[in-house]
Specification:
mainly beta; elongated
């Protein structure tokens, strides 16, 4: 089951909620009792290259060294 991270606008605390993907957009009350929360963008599971990292070998024309 996915874990979603939320931040409370009232007290600033961040907290995680495990719930099905079908409920990902549902509101989540703060553990301190506040209802004004926002879901944060989680970087877990997001693929891609960070900063100036280059792919390691392979990749055809994109870094494999096989072109010219």
């Amino acid at each position: 089951m996915p874990t979603y991270e939320f931040r409370c606008k009232a007290c600033g605390s961040t907290f995680d909620v495990k719930r099905p993907m079908s409920e990902s957009s549902a509101p989540a009350p703060c553990p301190h009792g506040h209802d004004d929360t926002v879901k944060l963008l989680s970087m877990v599971g997001v693929s891609g290259l960070a900063g100036n990292a280059q792919p390691a070998g392979g990749g055809g024309c994109c870094g494999g060294g096989c072109c010219g």
